[in-house]
Design a protein that fits this description.
Layout (H helix, E strand, L loop, with lengths): L1 H32 L9 H8 L5 H11 L5 H11 L25 H12 L2
Family: Belongs to the AROS family.
InterPro entries: AROS
Pfam family, one: AROS
């Protein structure tokens, strides 16, 4: 019975080792077949590799190089040309003050004189 007991565990340990070898072989085959021989990397491993990298300098450099300064006269001209195309851009019309009744240059005596000349009364 002792040899059987020793043989029993040996068989059970041999079977999982066989399975792991087979699993590794199939995994290696899958890796060879994917993406023209490129080995896929773990996203977590990639993130951890680049985690300590700071992007502030790169971002500032990009933003300052992409910014173009235009003369203020040019921007005013563009704004002036585009004004009034949309209802929301139109300036509010100012209300005009009511004009006071304009006084005349002629006096009452002049009107009486004209009346006598034209109407004969």
């Amino acid at each position: 019975e002792a040899p059987r007991a020793a043989a029993g565990p040996a068989k059970t340990t041999g079977a999982p080792a066989k399975r792991t070898r087979k699993a590794k072989a199939t995994q290696a085959q899958k890796l060879r077949n994917s993406a023209k021989g490129k080995v896929p990397k773990s996203a977590l491993a990639e993130f951890q590799k680049r985690e300590c990298r700071g992007y502030l300098g790169v971002n500032l450099k990009f933003m300052t190089s992409a910014r173009s300064t235009v003369a203020e006269s040019v921007t005013r001209q563009i704004v002036r040309q585009n004004r009034g195309r949309k209802a929301c851009d139109r300036p509010v019309a100012k209300t005009k003050k009511k004009k006071k009744a304009e006084g005349t240059v002629f006096t009452e005596e002049d009107f009486q004189k004209f009346q006598q000349e034209y109407f004969g009364s």
